[in-house]
Amino acid sequence: MPHAADTAAREARLGVTYALAAYLVWGFFPIYFKALAGVAPLEVLAHRIVWSVMTLALMLTAARRWEGVRAVFAQPKTLLTLCATTLLIAVNWLVFIYAVGAGKVLQSSLGYFINPLVSALLGVVFLRERLRAKQKLSFLLAAAGVAFLTVQHGELPWISLALALSFGLYGLLRKQAPVDSLSGLTVETLLLFPVALAYLLWLAHQGTSAFVAGPTRLTVLLACAGVLTSTPLIWFAAATKRLRLATVGLMQYLVPTLHFLLAVFAYGEPFTRAHLVSFACIWAGLVLYTIDAAKLLFSASRPE
């Protein structure tokens, strides 16, 4: 049926557009947070939470989808799970904001490169998923890369590991929570909202708020945090509805790649021989894992 084929192709193109838009925003996030480098990470995080709640509230009102949020608060088990994901996403956001402000975008790039492997490892530990031989080798390569960097630099790349583990655990728990992405993110930010708002009011009372006492440029940038947080998530959700997960998974590497390029070529962060060896091991592990996963998905979807 030509008409059905045309519709499917059009939806796939739209899905790619949504995915690219989301990944490009996330990929260029360091530029935004670099512009806020003079603001304390906790204040940036608080603004991100408060303005996200306002943005998401407008979106839910326009879409008439508040029932999803109300349903979560009526389900204690789901709410408890989202309390855990709330803490994890707050840690992830805070560590990333700190990394950018401290000139450690390269470490954040490393964290998001190893995140898919960490997520798969968490699946083995908590969901009893099994790894194929090539997948095990990919983990060993990634572990070797992290270990080499640790030995050469004399310190654990804690930013990379914190980002990968917090987001990996976040994805694991959100996968088990029966709630859509928009409602889930709204609940998570609502849970953080009272603390974040109280902190910002306290800063304003102390006269140390960058939003109140800082230049207009900072005020505008902080107010944009909600849109920049929420919009790419909506685009990502729209993309996953139209594309195969394998396609979305491959495209996700665009984010750490852009972070890597910004760190090395825009911000001049040192890229040593130890970094080269470490990243080479991790990239090799990712390539091996992705190819093996793609082959498995293709064989499973192929008609008998």
Automatic annotation (TrEMBL):
Alphabetical UniProt keywords: Cell membrane, Membrane, Transmembrane, Transmembrane helix, Transport
Pfam assignment, any one: EamA
Transmembrane region(s): 12-33, 45-66, 78-98, 110-128, 135-151, 185-204, 216-238, 250-268, 274-298
UniProt-annotated location(s): Cell membrane
All residue ranges annotated as the EamA domain in the record: 14-150, 161-289
Record's bilayer topology term: Multi-pass membrane protein
Organism annotation: Geobacter pickeringii
Protein's UniProt name: Transporter
GO CC, one annotated term: plasma membrane
Domain of life assignment: Bacteria
Classification lineage: Bacteria, Pseudomonadati, Thermodesulfobacteriota, Desulfuromonadia, Geobacterales
Family under the similarity heading: Belongs to the EamA transporter family.
